[in-house]
Structures are given as structure tokens and as C-alpha cells.
């Protein structure tokens, strides 16, 4: 029997969820394919609490599943083998926003749409955007290297990340790159954690590079003869314009 009392004492009555309905809700993503079978749901409120949870899990040989907005479609947030789910829903704090440097630092549970709104309030722009922006969390965006619809112009989430704070599987806290743009000090471990799907550690804080607002956009809808016309049309527009997005549907 695994003793959950240390986690109850650490997180409080509202910070450790054990009901079947909570486990079902937190234990899956949008795939809805695999059956959920988790030990409990931990809701840490700080990096230090995440560190304590990881060390408890290591000592008790309990596997962890980091959980953000659970909007993925690859099963990365599914807990089906008795794992402890570590959900970042309470780690939503804005740590700093700097208009002059065009940067924003926040905890990993902040929703992507809120980051976009905070940037807009400062006359800035966070360019990574997708349909789940109002429910996905920035920690999950980083862990999956989310792209969205504007990658042609702005790149992936990786291209916006200036720094990370991460708790490793051994319970160590790493501060990676610390928001530097120019850093030639050696290995940039930040990029190992971006896209790692929680396999190397749990992201707890993110520093992002913002940009200036885009000009008013124009949208053009074209009817093409077939899929073989997509690439030539894209090439023609990229040679003449600065594209923000290019999508097709049948």
C-alpha cells in the first residue's frame, strides 16, 4: 500500500484529488481511447512542491504523468498504469512582463490565451496560436513544442522560449538559459526539454519572447484544381508577401 499522507500534508485537502471522477477527468487527453487507471491527482502550487512530489515518487517507486490542459491527441497525458498525475492547474502566476525587452515569464499552468491577452495589454503579441488556446497550458505547449497556424511566419513554441525552470526526475531544480538571447556558455539544455513530453522532467516556469503586434491581416480564399497546386501557390505568395498562415481544406 502506497502512503499518500505525505502528499496530503504537503498539498492540503484540495491539492490531492482521489475521487474516481477527478482521476477520470485529469487522467486522459482528447484521444479518449485508453482506460484511465491512476493513483491520484496532485495539484502543486509551486516549483518547490513539484520537487517534493518528485522526490516522494522516486522514494516510493511511483511513476508520474505531468498534466497541463490535456488538449493533446497523442496520449501523452494519459495515466493508465497506476501513475500519480501531476496537474499544473494551480501554477498560473504571472512572474514578470517586460515591455522594453518584450518578454513574459509565468508559471507552467498559465493558459495560452491568457498569455496572448497579457501580451496584448502591453502592446505586444504572443504569436503561437491554435484552436485550443483558451484551454491549453504553456507548460504543455513547451513540452509538446506546439506549433499552431502561424508557424510560417513565427515558428514553433521552441522559437519563443527564452528560459525554463524544470524539476528533473531526480528532484533537482534546473534554471535553463535564464532568459538570455545571447548565450555561448555551452550546452543549451533548454532545447532538450522542449518537445520532451514530460519524459525528462516537469516544466514549472517559462520565459517567453514576445514580439510587436502584426499589421492588419488580409485573408484570401482560393479555389485550386487539386493538391498538386498547393506548393506552387505557396511558393508564389511567399516570394511576394510575408505570410502569417497558409492552410488548405478539401
Q: Provide the helix percentage.
A: 25-40%
| Whole-number mean pLDDT | 93
Uncertain stretches of 5 or more adjacent residues: none
User: What is the first-to-last residue Cα distance?
Assistant: 54 Å
Radius of gyration (Å): 20 Å
- Strand residues, percent: 15-25%
Tertiary shape:
globular
Determine the structural class based on helices, strands and strand pairing. alpha+beta
The major sheet is characterized as: 5 strands, antiparallel
Tally of separate helices: 8
Strand order of the largest sheet: 5-6-9-7-8
Number of strands: 9
H/E topology pattern: HEHEHEEEEHHHEEHEH
Structure description:
The protein is of the alpha+beta class and 250 residues long. It is built from 8 helices and 9 strands. The strands form 2 sheets. A 5-stranded antiparallel beta sheet has the order 5-6-9-7-8, sandwiched between helices. Helix 1 runs antiparallel to helix 3 (47-60). The termini are far apart.
Q: Brief overview, please?
A:
This protein is an alpha+beta fold and 250 residues long. 26% of the residues lie in helices and 19% in strands.
SSE inventory with pairings:
Layout: H1 5-11, E1 16-17, H2 20-26, E2 38-42, H3 47-60, E3 64-67, E4 83-87, E5 94-98, E6 103-107, H4 112-121, H5 138-144, H6 151-154, E7 161-168, E8 173-176, H7 190-193, E9 201-209, H8 230-240
Parallel strand pairs: 2-4, 3-4
Antiparallel strand pairs: 1-2, 5-6, 6-9, 7-8, 7-9
Helix pairs in contact: 1-3
